[in-house]
Amino acid sequence: MAADFTVGLGMSCLCRLLRFNEMTKKKKYFWEIGSDPPVLEQHSAVKHRIIESYVRNYVQTVMAQATIPRLQLTLVDGFSGGGCYLAEDGSGFVDGSPLLMMRAVREVRAFLNLSRNKPREICVNYELIDIEPKTVEYLNYWFNARNNEGVLDQEDVKRTNVKCADFLKELPRIKAAIKARKMGERAIFLLDQYSYDDLPMKEIAEILTSIKKSEIILTFNVGSLMTFISDQAVNRKPMAKIGLESYIPWEQIGALKASDSQKWRQVLQRHVAHGIKSEVGAKYATLFFVKPLGSNTWDYWLIHLCNHYKAHEVMKDLHWEHATEFGHELEPGVFMQGYDANRDQEYTQQTPFDFGSDSKERCVEGIREYFGQQIYALNKPIPLRELIESCVSRSPGSIQHFLNAARILHVSQDIVICDACGNVRRPSKHYSLDDIVEHSRRIRLFY
To answer: How far apart are CA 118 and CA 296, in angstroms?
Structure first.
């Protein structure tokens, strides 16, 4: 109802409504010494668990070989907040993302050095940025309090830079500092901005292209976008600001909203998802809704952008570990990005994918169908790795789901799988990404 109502609003009225919405959100996350910090709602707590787990898994993955003596890493929290919240259940104070990243590093550092005479070094620089002076003041206050409690490693404390500034203005300095560090330019950027129009896509693209081993964890308030979007100048301006205006089917929005409330959300999601991935130029992306409790079932996207397959796989595995708290409204197997009216029937009647009880089966079945069509249409051998990587960013599936789908096709003799030396393989529970796949010449199911 809110979306239909805003279509008819005057431009000035809609501008005020949008500003009020953003002001309300910013006030909701308000820090000031002497006052209680904001409450950490369930959906934000899920996001924080993902961030903490990913940093821990990232370090463990990079340092998997015991002979690696040292890791140089930069962790950037570009919209850091005050570092402290009240637990939603009233149990007390909980740490925000800056402290959670430090806790993850501390834990994995201790784990990697168990029973070792010569310690392995985890050298992390922390860049913690927020534009609100009172928020930064509170972050310093909470950071010092946690340090006095002895829960932070002193080497992390010494390498932490807390700054009150606009992230985009600080970005050139941060990039230069990362590139000046030796041993690989490794960096993770956490960009949890207030509004979907706070961060242009070109800036994200520049991070990924200029820093060789950089990754980005981005929140994108697509729920707010879909609530207020319509074909008016006030809507086009923020989309133009972030570089996504050309991906929105502006002339179709009114008709789509009037015809089917679920369909227009799906169509818009396809366009925005396609625009984000195209503009940032990331080779791999995960894009899922974080699901708040209550009537607002879909709120914002948690997006991971990177150019290395292993990083993508680690993040996707975390989504499956937190299965009930993520989802999307697109196909469960391999979904299409963008929208083509001539293929409209393929988009309709999609039930939301929510990692529920039957989600693995739905995901594998969708991948199986896609693989069968692609392998038959290709009509020549293709490495399994290449087949998976061609569509992995458009699927909720992890590597195991893709291998299971290949096995089903193999068992049913719809495809032939050979090892890298050309030897024909029998159906197995274990395949190599170097295996070669082609459609069976005996059975043709995928016309």
So the answer is: 52
**Distance (Å, rounded) from C-alpha 202 to C-alpha 194?**
18
User: How far are the Cα atoms of 304, 345, 402 from residue 394, in angstroms, in the given order?
Assistant: 13, 19, 12
Q: Count CA atoms closer than 13 A to 327's CA, side-chain side.
A: 19
- Per residue in 384-443, pLDDT (tens digit) is 989 888 888 777 788 888 899 999 999 988 889 999 888 999 988 889 989 999 888 765
Assess contact for 146 and 93: CB atoms under 8 A: no
- The type of residue at 304 is H
Joined together, the tokens standing for residue 147 give 């340090």
CA–CA distances in Å: residue 276 to residues 203, 271, 283, 350: 12, 9, 12, 22
Helix, strand, or coil here: 86? strand
Q: How far apart are CA 250 and CA 242, in angstroms?
A: 16
Overall residue count recorded for the chain in this entry: 447
Specify whether the CB–CB gap between 290 and 220 falls below 8 A: no
Q: Look at residue 172 and give its three-state secondary structure.
A: helix
Is 70 exceeded by the pLDDT of residue 368?
A: yes
- What are the structure tokens assigned to 122, written together? 């985890």
